[in-house]
Write the structure tokens for this entry.
Amino acid sequence: MNKNQKIALLTKKHVAQTYGRYPIALVKGKGTRVWDKDNKQYLDFVSGLAVANLGHCHPAVVSAIKKQADKLLHISNLYHIEPQSQLAEQLTSLCFADKFFFCNSGTEAIESAIKLARRFSFDQGHPERTEIITMQNSFHGRTMGALSATAQKKIHTGFQPLLPGFKYVPFNNIQAVKKAISKKTCAILVEPIQGEGGVNVPDPSYLKELKSLCKNKGILLIFDEVQTGFGRTGSLFAHQLFKTQPDIMTLAKALGGGVAIGALGATNRVMKSFVPGTHAATFGGNPLACAAALASLKVITGKGFLKNTLETGSYFIERLQELAQEHSIIKNIRGKGLILAIELKKPGSEVVLECMENGFLINCIQQNILRFLPPLNITRKDINSLMPVLSKSLSRLSTKKFK
Ligand SMILES: Cc1ncc(COP(=O)(O)O)c(C=O)c1O
């Protein structure tokens, strides 16, 4: 038994089997590379699911964590927390939001957004406005509120009754939203680009139209930027790419440069509804996570970083399009910046395994969509090295028969 297998055995015996895990244990990371317990190296096109946007163990983040760890790890939100205030100041200077609430994950940020939208409507004298419109194929998390907001059957199965107050409509269909709005609607919740649902990019006008609809009806627009935030699309936030500002935005994943942290940003008008006693999180905005986030943000917003992400993303998509010319099994290539996908005509899980055997980590979603979420500082050389492996694997897959 090798060292990976030993860890796999421990996981199988003692860890809840909520994930279908690959047979390797990753124990070390540096930049775009990770190593398993048997010291095999992989080039990472997953980034811990859009978390390691700076690559693994970025020296600026590691150093900030070490420094903060020497000073203070945790203190309650009963007191002012210096790195939290600084992080909020930084974030507000970079987007529409005037204030931030901090939590620990994406799903928690979504719960916060649901609560804020309802409480805001209540405070506006509209206690009847409790419904939120969300999109089919969305993904917002696994807690009861977030999974009720998520319009995917497989996420709901066995967990009914869902939280009431969500109406689902097709993504990228403004007419469907118009039809769904009622006197009970308090908000529309949407990912600017759907991540888990298949890397679905909307028409350029879609978010703008949602915004004007919300404005006309006096309801709130919430963008879930948990996956698209922090440079993933080549803009710091995806809504900036679409030139549309929401009233509320949820963040997590890459915010902490690898450390767990989530956040909710909103305008002053809306955030006024969170007053003492309405919402809280013990670990939310703790000094360690905020110090890591501050360091990470400094790198992402540094000179040329996002421009480079955009250029690398364009290069990557060109290479994928070349692949599509050679392989008729490819149905579609899509994405923005470095959230990219190949939609296949057949299930893609074997491609993931073959890439892994050859030292590349990629991801498959919705059974037939290969998703690429590399660190944003990945090089063209790294991208080039993946192509022959992908090509070979797609050739093999195209000859395979599925029932
Ligand atoms: C768009 C989006 N929202 C929310 C979440 C939930 O985040 P977390 O897993 O940190 O709870 C995810 C996770 O993949 C996501 O992609």
Observations:
- Residues 305-326 form the longest helix (22 residues).
